[in-house]
Amino acid sequence: MSRFFRRSEGGARRWPVVAAVVTALAVPATVGVFTTVSAAPVTKAAEAPQGPIGDAFYTPPNPLPPGNNGDVIWWREIPGKAGAKAYLVLYRSESATGQPIAVSGRVFVPQAAWTGSGPRPIVSTAPGTRGIGDSCAPSKYLDYEAPFTDPLLQKGYAIATTDYEGLGTPGTHTYVVGQSEGRSVIDAARAATRLSATGLTAGGPIAFAGYSQGGGGAAWAGELAPSYAPDLNVVGIAAGGTPADLNEVAKSLDGSLGFGFLLLASLGLNSAYPELDLPSYLNDKGKELYATKQGVCVDAVFGYAFQKISDYTTTNPLNVPEWQAKLAENRLGKVKPNAPVFLYHGLVDEIIPLKQAETLRKDYCRAGAKVQWGAFLGEHVTTMAFTAGDVEKFLTDRFAGKAPKNNC
């Protein structure tokens, strides 16, 4: 695979780190009508208490305490990284259907004082696929994005990383449901500034970044932010390997190497929208999978390579109007992001089709967004690895206030 890449700007100095990541990754990460929310004034909440230790941290109080989206419910300081402190947070957010939920995540803050102008910038990162079980939450599971986020910490930026809805916290993870993921990414950034222990200040520059499932989460955060979070100063969105059109992604995955991701997506959609009633479409084999695989992590995905929807169903839900409607609600490109966007994709991506990402680029360009597009000669994993320098440069330029590139 390594022969298929274009060395990104800054790639030479990243090569040792990137090579280690490609070696370490056993599997690639993948697949990523919204409600206009009028922003209520955010009042300063009382300092959140420290939460319980262990898995009890992820079980929120019932009912949730009153508050605003992004408020910290409770928190704990956890072991940090070299030169950075780390905090585990449980914060308020909103589901795809507008219900209040608790989401877990982490905040990393460099210990060195910020020497740039204004408040310290924050990158709210949307993780790639970990799975759908609670044990797979990014704050508990393999942090394979650390080689890409650690250089951002070294530049002095803070990092907020969501676990998404239902990863760690109660319920099944709403995998690839963009409207849930985008809100979780946005509210992680808010939570980072509302925990006084971090020393972070509201009103500073914020960027969203992610790849694969995370590319979807970052792009959704960018589309939702103008209405859902007009209080945030969003300066950039970096979204790679983005599942922009779940219908097209599903068709491509059916019968392919990455079919297991399609199984996860069906469970995620059913979790977000129980009225879809996934079990009613399943045959005996599908019902067994539904009953036994709700806690799998990403390492299980390739056990289903080259299988088909018809192997597990009596009726293909992709052909049903109710499922098509929900897939359409979670299609990117219908709303213009206000911040500049860096969209990038592998030319031979075997998991997320390039064509639907190119369509997203066209949709954003037609809407008047500022889009930097990058098509790289790589498949899914190598594209993530060898674009690290490009993403870092894009974010650094946005925080520096430089004019964005626009190659629409």
Please tell me about this protein's structure.
The chain has 408 residues and is α/β, with parallel strands linked by helices. It is built from 11 helices and 9 strands. The chain has a 9-stranded mixed β-sheet with strand order 1-2-3-5-4-6-7-8-9, sandwiched between helices. Helix 4 (213-228) links the parallel strand 6 (205-211) and strand 7 (233-240). It starts with 10 loop residues before the first helix and ends in a 9-residue tail after the last helix. The relative contact order is 0.16. Mean pLDDT is 89; it is low at 1-44.
Feature tags:
single chain, 408 residues, alpha/beta, 9-stranded mixed beta sheet, 17% strand, globular
Task: Record the SSE blueprint.
Elements: H1 11-24, E1 72-81, E2 84-94, E3 100-110, E4 122-126, H2 146-154, E5 158-162, H3 178-194, E6 205-211, H4 213-228, E7 233-240, H5 246-253, H6 259-272, H7 284-292, H8 321-329, E8 341-346, H9 354-367, E9 371-376, H10 380-386, H11 388-399
Parallel strand pairs: 4-5, 4-6, 6-7, 7-8, 8-9
Antiparallel strand pairs: 1-2, 2-3, 3-5
